[in-house]
Amino acid sequence: MGAPKKSSAARVSEDSDELVRVPLQAILLADSFTTKFRPITLERPKVLLPLVNVPMIDYTLTWLESAGVEEVFVFCCAHSKQVISYLEESEWFSQPNFAVTTIESHNSVSAGDALRLIYERNVIHGDFVLISGDTISNMSLTEALREHKERKKKDSNAVMTMVIKRSKPNPAIHQSRLGTDELFVAIDPDTKQLLYYEDKADNSKGILHLEKSLLSDNPSLSLHHDKQDCYIDICSPEVLSLFTDNFDYQHLRRHFVKGLLVDDLMGYKIFVHEIHSDYAARIDNFRSYDTVSKDIIHRWTYPLVPDVMNFGNTATKLERQGMYRASEISQSQSAVIGPFTAIGFGTKIGNHSKILSSVIGEGCNIGSNVHIEGCYIFNHVTIEDGCILRNAIVCDGVTMKSGAVLEPGVILSFKVVVGQEFVVPRYSQVSLLQQPVEEDSDEELEYADSTSAMTSKVDNSDVEDTSQVLDTHFQSSSELGVGGDGYIWSKCEGGHEEEWRHSVAPIPADKISEAMKIMEDELELTHDGSILPPSGELKPDSNDSEDDDNEDSRDDYFEKEVEATFLRAVNENIQEDHLILEVNSLKLSYNKLAADCAGAVFYAMMKYALDSARSSAGSLIQNVKSVLTKWKNVLTPYLTDIDDQIEVILKFEEMCSESVREFAPLFSTILHLMYDEEIVEEDAILRWDDEKRDADESDKVFVNQAQAMIEWLRHAEEEDGDEEEEE
Amino acid sequence: MMVMMDFKVVVLAGGVSKKLLPLVSKELPNALLPVANRPLLSYTLDLLELSNLKDLIVVVEGRDAAREVGSWISAAYADRLQVEVAAVPEDVGTAGAIRAISRYLTTAKDILVVSGDLVSDVPLGAVAATHRRHDAFVTAMLCSAPVSGSLDSGSSGGKDKTKKPGRYDLIGLDPTKQFLLHIATGAEVGKDLRVQKSILRAAGEIEIRADLMDAHLYAFKRSVLLEVLEQKGTFHSLKQDVLPYLVRSQLKSDVLLNGIPQAEENGNEKVISQSNQQMISQILANASEPTFHLRYALGPHGSSSARRTHKCCVYIAGSSKYCARLNSIQAYSDINRYVIGEASHLSGYSFSSHNNIIDPSAELGAKTTVGPHCMLGEGSQMGDKCSVKRSVIGRHCRIGANVKVVNSIVMNHVTIGDSCSIQGSVICSNVQLQERAVLKDCQVGAGFVVTAGSECKGEVLAKK
């Protein structure tokens, strides 16, 4: 299990001067815990996919190194072997002043699990950068780190700084140019504290609903729809323990960020750091893959551009008009390579072929009269004569037989063969592997267990795999034309209906106009004021009373639950201890006091006594006596305080006067019984009497009834208080 | 001043406000309540005159009050302003008031609606100009929300507010602070914030401000205002109904859809139906950036989808400007103090070297001191050893010896006996305070007699 690199640990202990200065650490999640890059990610982890011919993780690591991070923990889960072996072969393990350690896990299904595991390892000692391996950035961390540290010094609850960047989503289709969902955030303009975070917005609701408490402390707040979450977080070590404390936190944003924002109990705060000229973007889906690739080619990510980042042996040179060319490219005179393209090492391009704004990997073989536009072609791909490819992603080892056509948005996973003159329809996802059966379409589980088992098989034994493939060869050949090989995945229901959203292909105009129309209609809806109530005078404020009702009904629920629990205990002969435990859990979930429990349990007991008295022949008082004797131990844990006991008396009074009038004539008798059973002490009864002294006559019915007993108690107290104490 | 042309001003002077009892009455409606010895309405009218907005209708609730206001205006402003006074029934609300006088509003292109209880030095012309520049449906003036409670008298009674600065409105602005994107007023302020996503999407950013207040001064496009009032018969208040409605519907304007053909209007609906080229030139001619309304109307690819939008603009008064509404007793005290104090230029008087105004005809006894930020009206007399601090004393008051007046307002013809002490109080006209009366944080209604030696604190004293 990814033994920690000795060097890093050694370095810290050696430099005794640096004990105070904790080296800047980073956690790099080499697993996005999503399924958005399927089918490609069934065979290779996303972080190893080439982005303008360099694996994504190299961008992330390069940035971390340049930003002054000294120690990186790479968390590998899905395809962990591939990631680790890639890193082992790379130069990352041998960089001076930059320690890369892998942490491997096979059962983590979310970022939350990952962070909990890392917490257990106890390797993070100070502030750290949390990033996933598909994030491309060139920002300087200095400023953000300084802000974070300063805030932390003043307020230990400032546990996280999120990096955001301006990006205006398209208002019609509700997504950014990265293909991510629109994001609504509220930020305090002065302190930059994050107050509200809503991604995955529910578009059916036209209203952004913010708690009024957000405004009670701030004279102003900024609502933003024009910000993009860069998924680069600077975290204090507390973040890890927060994940451990809240074991249900899975998703970094949906659970952790929202959880902290909602929880005002702990008072943890998240702040944002906005970058302006720097670049930062996460590759979340195929659209962002396309967008970020273009940004790299257009050099927005400088110095993270192909000609500066030279990995491996092949140098890439930038030529005019944004053409990146590696060495040993053989290109026909008649071939046209348009601006903003990248061509990898050793690729051959035939006569009259046209390549426009695309990325072609290493060792590709492109025939004649091929038209490639807006495509991402990985390594060792063979494209025979006369093929047409538009806005597609083509993985390693794919063969396209002559005349095959890829319509926009097609994804061809590894080693797929497209048959002669076969047209792969729009947005098709093609893989040699069959589409996994969707047992539980929980998005969290990217490389879900079944598939990771499946893919590891692919990793381990390529030979075996191909034989498997051969078996299915003939069945699948029909799917991709003559001589083709691969399965066209069926679109799953729901999620992929709007496949155009996250595709590499540009959004078709008709989709946009469609979305615009929907937006119009939405406006129409909002309009009548049916959603926004007309303010002020038109509608009297009725909300408050509703709230009260809710409170009441919660009380009711609590009592009913306790009663039901009690009855079950009686009928099923459940032990007292267990019953107490159950009542305690109700107490916690309804946020009640001990006194409430005492009242509720007592109520349940009396109700039971009454019901059994009705059904059986025994007198009411007999039943009450037996119930109290039998179950008083359930009640006593809640009666530690005199106040709790008074609560019970008051509850009893209420029952007698309202719900269960049968007890009314027996009030003083039962009170005496309770005294005898030590459910209520004399202090409680006397205090109750005192409290009632100034009440209305109508409220004093039962005090008067019990007057004889109270007198007797007072008398006893005066006479032999000492004796009683000894008892 | 060309821009001021074609603006009809409607001054909503109110009637007899319950919140200001016992200071006001049928004989002395809100509009005539003296603030630093001048009727409240004169502040608004002078401000309008200063901005060359001279064509006005003063709307008063109640016939009697209207008569009083009318006779005062004709006496004071006869040759300065062109004023009509219109009476409307009481409790019709601000929207109802406009509805009631709509027959007078037939010509002007825009209407400036001013609340008559506004005391301000904000140049109203600038508000009108902002409105015109954006060709907005409505432009609202915003000012800093006053910090309630006075500066130095922590004991000032009445308000049970907490120490926090007052919350009046929640206002959502675009980043350029030109457009009004969200407004919550009245009961909405205390509730959760509910912002339309469509507007946030279009604008990208909305800054929600709790420290600004809607000053109840609006410029409306006349046809828009009248159409909204006609269509929405239930709208009662401009501030709480009409303005929020226009703000809500700004991206999908349905005003003027079934209205009269607006051929002569240079409104947005025409602009948008024109070609892009013309539109852009129009915007450039208006010397303002293409706003998000326009971008929104154009759609993401510049395709003119002929969407109707309209603009709701704001004019934010600079922080150095004074702007307050006299709508409570607390505000009455604060404004009086302010007008004779920090904002003395508003009073229209010239202050002496002691930073106070003592009318030459006033008489002061021996060893009587009138401190800075004080005002003493004509013909008032004070006995010996009196002391006046931060207070306004009206005309023809007779004040005995050894009287202390601190942080108070004394109106006209008030008689104050010897050794009285008045602090934080408002004494209306014709009140008689017999000797040794001690008042703290009291309001004394017109003509009331406070008997000798009585001590009152935080009380309202008025004739039944």
Automatic annotation (TrEMBL), chain A:
Keyword Metal-binding attributed: no
Coiled-coil ranges (or none): none
InterPro entries: ARM-type_fold, eIF-2B_epsilon_N, eIF2B_epsilon, LbH_EIF2B3/5, NTP_transferase_dom, Nucleotide-diphossugar_trans, Trimer_LpxA-like_sf, W2_domain
One cellular component term from this protein's GO annotations in UniProt: cytosol
Keyword terms: Cytoplasm, Initiation factor, Protein biosynthesis
Source superkingdom: Eukaryota
One function term, GO molecular function aspect: guanyl-nucleotide exchange factor activity
Residues spanning the signal sequence: none
Positions of the W2 domain: 552-723
Family of the protein in this entry: Belongs to the eIF-2B gamma/epsilon subunits family.
Protein name: Translation initiation factor eIF2B subunit epsilon
Stretches the record annotates as Disordered: 526-555
Lineage: Eukaryota, Viridiplantae, Streptophyta, Embryophyta, Tracheophyta
KW Cytoplasm (keyword) present: yes
Compartments reported by the entry: Cytoplasm, Cytosol
Organism: Crotalaria pallida (Smooth rattlebox)
Acidic residues bias locations: 543-554
Subunit and interaction comment: Component of the translation initiation factor 2B (eIF2B) complex which is a heterodecamer of two sets of five different subunits: alpha, beta, gamma, delta and epsilon. Subunits alpha, beta and delta comprise a regulatory subcomplex and subunits epsilon and gamma comprise a catalytic subcomplex. Within the complex, the hexameric regulatory complex resides at the center, with the two heterodimeric catalytic subcomplexes bound on opposite sides.
Gene3D superfamilies with a match to the protein in the record: 1.25.40.180, Hexapeptide repeat proteins (2.160.10.10), Spore Coat Polysaccharide Biosynthesis Protein SpsA, Chain A (3.90.550.10)
Principal location: cytoplasm
UniProtKB/TrEMBL annotation, chain B:
GO CC field: cytosol; eukaryotic translation initiation factor 2B complex
Keyword vocabulary terms for this entry: Cytoplasm, Initiation factor, Protein biosynthesis
Pfam families assigned: LbH_EIF2B (PF25084), NTP_transferase (PF00483)
Matches recorded under Gene3D superfamilies: Hexapeptide repeat proteins, Spore Coat Polysaccharide Biosynthesis Protein SpsA, Chain A
Record keyword Cytoplasm present: yes
Keyword Cytoplasm belongs to the record: yes
Ranges of residues in domain Nucleotidyl transferase: 8-146
InterPro entries: eIF2B_gamma, LbH_EIF2B3/5, NTP_transferase_dom, Nucleotide-diphossugar_trans
One Gene Ontology biological process: cytoplasmic translational initiation
Signal peptide (residue range): none
Coiled-coil intervals, chain numbering: none
Similarity annotation: Belongs to the eIF-2B gamma/epsilon subunits family.
PANTHER family to which the protein is assigned, alphabetical: TRANSLATION INITIATION FACTOR EIF-2B SUBUNIT GAMMA
Assembly description: Component of the translation initiation factor 2B (eIF2B) complex which is a heterodecamer of two sets of five different subunits: alpha, beta, gamma, delta and epsilon. Subunits alpha, beta and delta comprise a regulatory subcomplex and subunits epsilon and gamma comprise a catalytic subcomplex. Within the complex, the hexameric regulatory complex resides at the center, with the two heterodimeric catalytic subcomplexes bound on opposite sides.
Function, as annotated: Acts as a component of the translation initiation factor 2B (eIF2B) complex, which catalyzes the exchange of GDP for GTP on the eukaryotic initiation factor 2 (eIF2) complex gamma subunit. Its guanine nucleotide exchange factor activity is repressed when bound to eIF2 complex phosphorylated on the alpha subunit, thereby limiting the amount of methionyl-initiator methionine tRNA available to the ribosome and consequently global translation is repressed.
Protein name (record): Translation initiation factor eIF2B subunit gamma
Species, as recorded: Crotalaria pallida
